[in-house]
Amino acid sequence: MIKLVRIDHRLLHGQVVFSWCKQLNIERIIVVDDTTAGDEFQKVSLNLSKPTGTKLNIFSVKETLEKMPKIEQLPENIMMIFGNTSSVLSFCQQYSAISEINYGVITKKEGSKQYSQAIYLNNQELEDSIKLKNMGIELFMQQVPASKKEVLNDRI
Q1: Inter-residue contact 88 to 101 (CB < 8 Å)
Q2: Which of 40, 37, 34, 6 is nearest to 20 (CA)?
Q3: How many CA atoms lie within 13 A of 110 on its CB side?
Q4: CB–CB of 30/91 below 8 Å?
Q5: Positive or negative: CA dihedral 135, 63, 59, 77
Q6: How far, in Å, CA of 16 to CA of 43, rounded?
Q7: If we measure between CA atoms, which residue out of 62, 47, 55 comes closest to residue 29?
C-alpha cells in the first residue's frame, strides 16, 4: 500500500527518510527520478542512504508506470519519492490513484516564490502544482512527521 508520495529534490535524505519510514512503518521506498534511474553511481549512493531493512527501487517515471500493477499488489507499506514536480505530474496524469502529495523540500532558485520554510516554487513548478490540485489531489507541505502539516492547495 502506498502510504506516502513525496517530492524532495534530495530524494533519500537521512533524517527525513528515517523519520517518515519509522512513522509510517515503511518497508519499501520507490524513488521515481529519470536522471537517477539512469545513473549507476547515484543508485549505489541511494542504496547506502536507505534505512536498514527497507527495500529500495529506483525507476524512471515510465518504468514506475509500467510496474504499478505489480506495485499495487505488494503487501508492504510503500513511500514513493519524486525529485521534482514535473515527474510527479507526469506520473499522476497517467496514474489516477494518488490522492495526496507531500511537498518535502523544493529549493529556492531564481524566480521562485516561498510557500513554506522549505518549499520554493518557480513558475513551472507552480503551474505543475496547480494542475495536480485541479486533478483533485491534496498537496501538503511537511518536512517531517513531527512538523506542522500545511495545505498548499489553499495557497496556489
Answers
A1: yes
A2: 6
A3: 0
A4: no
A5: positive
A6: 18
A7: 55
Amino acid at 6: R
pLDDT digits (tens, 9 = 90+) for 1-46: 999 999 999 898 877 788 999 999 999 999 999 999 999 999 999 9
Location of C-alpha cell 514535473: 86
DSSP secondary structure letters along 62-101: HHHHHHHHHHHH-SS-EEEEESSHHHHHHHHHH-TT--EE
Q: Which residues are CB-contacts of 27 (< 8 A; sequence separation ≥ 6)?
A: 54, 55, 76, 77, 78
SS3 of 28, please?
A: strand
Residue 151 DSSP label = E
Residues 120, 112: contact at Cβ < 8 Å? yes
3-state SS of 102-117 is EEEEECCCCCCEEEEC
89: cell is 505530474
Q: Give the integer Cα–Cα distance in Å for 9 and 65.
A: 20
User: Per residue in 128-140, pLDDT tens?
Assistant: 999 999 999 999 9
